[in-house]
């Protein structure tokens, strides 16, 4: 009898363990309809045709082939005497499979090596299609750290913003491309085929494969783990994401830590020094001709430096960040350059990011220090403007007068003043959505356009479930077990944790690690080693291995099965431990 009671308590304790401590992955479902029939500006359509185009293999030289138009990022094949070297492998196995077929049709042979230009999922998610057994995979030494950041505490925000930036619920007739490539298939990309590199380097690495020399150079820019590949015998430079046919994404709407502006310029200068005949970026069409390549690279780095230097000048002059964003622009000598057209990155967003990186959010405007709370502030504005109905009437007039920019401002004020009046599906939400659609009709930047259209659709139909890459079990054991606890701490529900002061201990038999999680003052503290003074006695002690814990935390292993097989033991008050884990929010 006693044993049955123990089992029942253990089951109760374990039920809350899975997704609560890290995340469980919800399969992608398209639960809201697609935005359709929003005709893109003609110039955007032309850009999509010219810079991206239909899926095809282009022969750059006798040895270099480019598969472009199949996915957001391109894949390059370098033919050597012992097989093919593949640079970047696409976003998902589903998208990579036809690329492999097309490239190997152009250059049949075994895969000799894979090179990742960086760790963004659109360049590595299709690796399983290319990584035949024993094929070496090259990347910079920062690759793994950078890759795993994609599975950090801000993942939910990043996924929601990423889905908006790429217009997950926007049809192809309304958004024909993603400015730097084919629209990504975010649903397919939830199944990742990414593989970790087997060979890494810092600085530079020279390879000779089947009679072809490949010079790999670390080149920070769009990411801190970026490299480019120079093929001196071919006169070809594979630029990764430090160059493509759009103003660079110095800031990305999906959210990222600041991109290293000075390093990006230095990387472009290192590329200029090599004076290649062919510039083959990982996104958008290649450029051939030594003069054309030199001029394009020079204008690109000059555009970045222009924005950086104008931000510095205007900040030193005491201008607010809003004024700076509005005033930076590009000089006449660069404004018409095709590779600086604001199709993917945008000058004003970049200016804000550069300002924020160096000076932070405060821009010398004293009114920003002690404003009223947003709802109160918005209500007072609405009152000063004659009340909600008057503001709404002005917003409708703005739409009728083809001034959607102003309409969006006015509707947003109404949203902030009374958010409940703007909940998805309400007439007011529909009016803001229509104003966002109207604004999008003027926007030729695909990230901005997608964000407006996707947001409008969420206003009409509510938030769709998030689709985000699943964590491949192969990556799990690379994550330090403390990473799971760091994220667990951020999942504490302050309401369920109010007035709680309790702790639980976790002991890992394989590494000897001991972690104590203490709930106190509405936060969860994670302490490695000995608990700090004042920590209450643990209400339970969980004993397991790091491998088991990683799988429990990601719902790959059932706690009940782990307990039954002896991989997991819980000593102490099982019901109290159940309550303890129940204070953390489940979900992504
Ligand atoms: Zn990319």
From TrEMBL:
Family of this protein: Belongs to the metallo-beta-lactamase superfamily. Type III sulfatase family.
Residues of the Metallo-beta-lactamase domain: 72-283
Cytoplasm found in the keyword field: no
Species in which this protein is naturally found: Nannocystis punicea
Pfam families associated with the record: Alkyl_sulf_C, Alkyl_sulf_dimr, Lactamase_B
Identification of the protein by name: MBL fold metallo-hydrolase
Top-rank taxon: Bacteria
Alphabetical keyword list: Hydrolase, Metal-binding, Zinc
């Amino acid at each position: 009898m006693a044993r049955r009671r123990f089992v029942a308590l253990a089951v109760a304790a374990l039920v809350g363990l899975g997704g609560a401590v890290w995340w469980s992955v919800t399969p992608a479902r398209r639960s809201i309809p697609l935005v359709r029939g929003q005709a893109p500006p003609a110039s955007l359509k032309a850009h999509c045709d010219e810079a991206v185009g239909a899926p095809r293999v282009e022969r750059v030289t006798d040895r270099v082939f480019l598969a472009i138009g199949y996915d957001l990022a391109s894949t390059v094949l370098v033919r050597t005497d012992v097989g093919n070297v593949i640079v970047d492998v696409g976003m998902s196995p589903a998208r990579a499979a036809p690329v492999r077929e097309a490239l190997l049709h152009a250059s049949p042979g075994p895969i000799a090596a894979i090179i990742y230009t960086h760790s963004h999922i659109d360049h590595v998610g299709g690796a399983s299609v290319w990584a035949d057994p024993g094929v070496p995979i090259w990347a910079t030494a920062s690759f793994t750290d950078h890759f795993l950041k994609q599975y950090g505490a801000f993942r939910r925000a990043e996924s929601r913003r990423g889905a908006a930036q790429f217009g997950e619920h926007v049809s192809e007739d309304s958004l024909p491309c993603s400015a730097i490539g084919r629209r990504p298939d975010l649903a397919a990309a939830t199944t990742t085929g990414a593989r970790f590199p087997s060979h890494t380097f810092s600085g530079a690495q020279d390879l000779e494969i089947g009679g072809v020399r490949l010079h790999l150079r670390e080149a920070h820019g769009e990411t801190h783990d970026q490299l480019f590949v120079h093929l001196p015998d071919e006169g070809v430079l594979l630029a990764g994401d430090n160059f493509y046919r759009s103003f660079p994404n110095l800031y990305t709407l999906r959210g990222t830590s600041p991109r290293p502006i000075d390093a990006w310029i230095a990387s472009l200068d290192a590329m200029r020094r090599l004076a290649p005949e062919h510039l083959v970026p990982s996104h958008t069409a290649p450029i051939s001709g030594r003069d054309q390549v030199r001029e394009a690279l020079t204008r690109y780095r000059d555009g970045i430096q222009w924005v950086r230097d104008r931000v510095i000048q205007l900040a030193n002059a005491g201008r607010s960040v809003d004024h700076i964003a509005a005033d930076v622009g590009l000089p006449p000598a660069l404004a018409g350059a095709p590779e600086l057209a604001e199709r993917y990155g945008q000058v004003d967003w970049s200016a804000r990011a550069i300002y924020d990186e160096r000076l932070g959010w405060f821009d010398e405007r004293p009114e920003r220090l002690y404003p009223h709370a947003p709802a109160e502030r918005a209500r007072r504005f609405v009152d000063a403007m004659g009340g909600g109905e008057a503001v709404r009437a002005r917003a409708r007039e703005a739409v009728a007068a083809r001034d959607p920019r102003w309409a969006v401002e006015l509707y947003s004020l109404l949203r902030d003043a009374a958010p409940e009046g703007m909940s998805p599906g309400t007439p007011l939400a529909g009016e803001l959505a229509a104003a966002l659609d109207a604004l999008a009709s003027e926007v030729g930047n695909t990230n901005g356009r997608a964000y407006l259209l996707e947001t409008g659709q969420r206003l009409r139909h509510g938030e769709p479930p998030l689709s985000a890459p699943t964590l491949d079990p192969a990556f799990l054991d690379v994550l330090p077990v403390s990473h799971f606890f760091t994220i667990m701490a951020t999942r504490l529900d302050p309401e369920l944790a109010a007035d709680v002061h309790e702790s639980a201990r976790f002991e890992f038999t394989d590494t000897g690690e001991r972690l104590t999680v203490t709930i106190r003052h509405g936060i969860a503290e994670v302490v490695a080693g000995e608990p700090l003074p004042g920590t209450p006695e643990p209400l339970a002690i969980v004993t397991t291995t790091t491998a088991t814990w990683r799988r429990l935390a990601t719902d790959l292993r059932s706690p009940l099965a782990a307990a039954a097989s002896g991989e997991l033991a819980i000593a102490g008050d099982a019901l109290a431990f159940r309550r303890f884990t129940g204070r953390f929010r489940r979900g992504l």
